[in-house]
Amino acid sequence: MKQPLFDIQDLTVKLGGKRIYSQFSAQLPDVGITGIIGPNGCGKSTLLRCLGGLTTPENGSVRLRGADIGHLSSIARARQIAFLPQEPPMLTDMTVEGLVAKGRTPWRKAFLPASQADRDAVSQALEATQLTELRHRRLTALSGGQRQRAWIAMALAQQTEVILLDEPTSYLDLPHQIRLMQLLRDLVAQKGQARRVVVVLHDLTIAARFCDTLVGLSDGKLICAGPPSEALTPKTVMQLYGLRAQVRPDPVFARPVVYPEE
Amino acid sequence: MKPVITLSLALGCLVFLALSGGRDWLAPADVWHGLWSTENFVIHVLRLPRTALAVAAGLALGLAGALMQGLTRNPLATPDVIGLVQGASLGHIVALGLGTSVFLGETVGAAFALFAVIALAREQGPIAFVLYGIGVGATASAATTVILLRAPDATITQMMLWLSGSLARADLATAGALLGGVICAVFIVLWRARDLRTLWLGDDVMTGLGVNLPVLRFTVLGLVTLLTAGATLAVGPIGFLAFTAAPLARAVTGAEPPALFPAALMGACLLTAADLAARLIAPLVTLPTGLIMTLIGAPYLIFFLWSEKRKTA
Amino acid sequence: MSRASFASILVLLCLVLCLCAALSLRFGAAPVTLGALLNDTLGLLESRMFRTVCAICVGAAMAISGLMLQTLTGNPLADPGITGINAGAALAAIALAYFTPFNSGMAILLAASVGAGLAGYTLWHLAGADPVSGAGGIALRLPLAGLAIETLCLALATALILADAEMQARYLRWISGAIPAVARTETAPLGVISVLLVAGYFTCERLELLSLGADQSDSLGRNPNRTVALVLTCVTVLSGASVAIAGPLAFLGLLVPFVARGLAAGSLRRAYLFALPIGASALVLADTIGRVIARPGEVHAGIIAALLGGPALIMVLRRVLRPARWHAE
User: Fold this and answer.
1) Domain co-membership, A153 together with A34
2) Complex ipTM
């Protein structure tokens, strides 16, 4: 078997005195998009933060291609993993280009201005997210979907192999959700630059349609992992959400769709 | 880069204006010659120290305000609103009473106020931070008044003038020392620019970009404390300068947050202009510069709240 | 709370007030034996008596205006000091003295009330009109708008005072909140305060209805706009009168209503009755302490109040912020 992307061993995490994970082990395979699903408060975001090194676990280790994330310096980590929180801060008077340029932080040197490589990375990121036209706009003048793309462009400019996204679609309408997921698909399909995306999602239909692997979590436990057709079954839906449901492939893309019965 | 150049030019013009303006206006040529001949009394004794001090203190407070606002992601959390300036004043008065170094007293006072606010507002969000700051500031200024009342009369008069933020007793040595401190601060900012550029993005994004948050926090809070203490020592507790400088700089030049250097330059412009105004309005009375600054800053705060309210409505 | 325990608390508070008043009469900046004080050759007792009456009235007025303002805005931080209403009154009174020859008690009272009213109106526009419950109720807007109004008014007032040596002599003491010892122009404000303290009690019911929400109040037959106007008038005139007597005192209106509401367990009318003696006792005590600690000089009651007020603000914040617990940043 190929080496996993993330290897989580005996993870124990406490937040505010509450134990979120205890002795949690899992492996995320080295595929394009990995979706993390599960009910509210099951620890999806916490797991993502541990993968990104934002939360230091009390015990256990998270390895990225065999290297322990806890042992990396913050700069070395930021050159391999980009992270976007669920609700990025509202910035009043920053331009799109200004925000995307912040993604170059781990590559910048003290006392030196932005290098040619920095500028190239920014313009590539703007191009990939189709924001080149809007580069001088203020963030406040953008729509919700465009703003979300600007943040993703910042993560792209970071030029990391792995991008972690926490519910990037939650405030978007359906066409924008589809467009965003399509953008992520384009990113992982790009030749020469094999990016990996790990994304927390709420919408099971979207998750099944666009992800290569789904990881189901409930109450700090791993319920299921695998390609959507294997991970989403009536049994796992029951375990994840306590919901009786049927799962049928959709007629167009043959991806599993959950039909709740209650 | 453009905002910095624009504001530097504006500051240069203001400084020139401040040197030529006052009870008697000097012709530009006289100012220019006066600068290079140490015998010119009006320039070298009266106006240059005052202007230099205004520039230095303005730079320090503007930079401190922008740093603090960026770290807390709160446009209201500046050293003057959250009680640091008041803490520094209390430290100043206590140090005078104890006969120790005034700068040390101010630094300790500001650091103590900052520590108190952080400890009180821990994990309660940015609103609590500002509210507790107002409380700490109020406590410190009341304590200052009480201590002041026990002092001999001569000290009281002198201190009252200092407390209202006056540049009347400026001297070149103080201005030079403060300017040196500001240059050190600018050096540190440039050195840590990579991390400081991510201010305003919030803890999560900053960590994701590889910023070492504890180090950054320590750097910013240390810089803010020292800059506030130094500026307060030199010109007294001047309110609203740190608070208005950064947003005004961004509004005028379109600089993007954190806009540290534009904010510092705007602070210097504001204080120089306020001092010039104080000298022009009442040439014979020593009208405190801090008073003028309040008359600029408090209406700005009212405008800020009003526009915020219109935005939410 | 039973009727009996309500009555007993009220009686206890009145006894405390009597004790404080007695202390205020007995001790002052000049150390005098009890016998000499009673013989009263110096007129000392009379001046202390006047001073105590002033402190009682002003203390009660500050407490009540704080209580009403807090109920009206739904914000436990609203007090006439923090909100800048007192500073507005002080600015108006000083402007009156600077620009006009009027200096009767009634004129000062009117000017101070108008100043307080303007400050209150500005505040209401900047920070009021949406008494949201919960975390919104302790929103930042009100104390900040208050801070702006307060510093602006006090800076202008200081500028007026600094410009003139005579003004300096007359008002520097007053602006730091000193209780007067000699009757000059205080009779009119004292009378107004007494009348309003009684009248204010009868607005409690309307105000309680309003705190359920404007629509609720309307549907129960009480015009919410009229309640707001009534209460704001009451608050501004009370503040104006207090400032006319004792200068802009801060923070008294913050802590006292907080304690009173804690004791009253939900009833505004009971809180009102509790706030009267607590506020009076607090200011009388602050004034007495100020006279004693710095003999032969005096520390003005306003400074003592402010000194206790900062920690009081922090304490109140700790109580009201604790349950809200915003998402940790």
Assistant:
1) no
2) 0.85
Task: Let me know whether A174 and A76 are in one domain.
Answer: yes
Contacts of A92 in chain B (CB under 8 A): 257
User: Is A91's CB within 8 Å of B209's CB?
Assistant: no
Which of residues C248 and A235 earns the better pLDDT score?
Answer: A235
Chain A contact probe: residue of B71, B74, B209, B213 with most A CBs at under 10 A: B209
Q: Determine contact, residues C96/C249, Cβ cutoff 8 Å.
A: no
Which residues of A are less than 8 Å from B257 in CB distance? Answer: 91-94
Whether chain B has a CB inside 8 Å of the CB on C132: the answer is: no
- Asked if A79 and A30 touch (Cβ cutoff 8 Å), the reply is no
Last residue of a domain, one of A138, A157, A176: A157
Q: Is A91 on the interface with B (CB under 8 A)?
A: yes
Residue with tokens 């105590």, as numbered in its chain = C52
Which chains have 3 or more CB–CB distances shorter than 8 Å to chain C? Answer: B
By Cβ distance, the residue of C151, C158, C310 closest to B298 is: C151
Which one is predicted more confidently, A229 or C293? A229
Query: Residue by residue, what is the 3-state secondary structure of B240-263?
Result: CHHHHHHHHHHHHHCCCCCCHHHH
Residue A55 lies in a domain: yes
User: Among the three residues A124, A139, A157, which one is the final residue of a domain in this structure?
Assistant: A157
Region A61-79 average pLDDT = 90
In a domain, A244, yes or no: no
A124 and A50, same domain (yes or no): no
Give the domain extent around A152: 92-157
**What pLDDT was estimated at residue C137?**
44
Residue B287's contacts (CB-CB under 8 Å, 6 or more residues apart) are B278, B279, B281, C159, C162
pLDDT at B286 over 70: no
Query: Which one is predicted more confidently, B271 or C102?
Result: B271
Averaged pLDDT score across all residues of chain B: 86
Q: Is the CB of residue C328 less than 8 Å from the CB of residue B123? A: yes
**Domain limits of chain B?**
2-312
Q: Which of B243, B239, B65, B279 is closest to C152 using CA atoms?
A: B239
Single-letter amino acid code for the residue at B134: I
Whether residues A65 and A166 fall in one domain? yes
Q: Which domains does chain C have, with CATH numbers?
A: 45-322 (1.10.3470.10)
| Neighbours, chain A (3 or more CB pairs < 8 A) | B
Q: How many domains does chain A have?
A: 2
Interface-testing mutation among B190, B207, B212, B307, with chain A (most A C-beta atoms within 10 A) = B207
pLDDT-derived band at A246, boundaries 50, 70, 90: very high
The shortest C-alpha distance from C310 to chain B (Å) reads: 4
**B2-312 has CATH 3.90.79.10 classification:** no
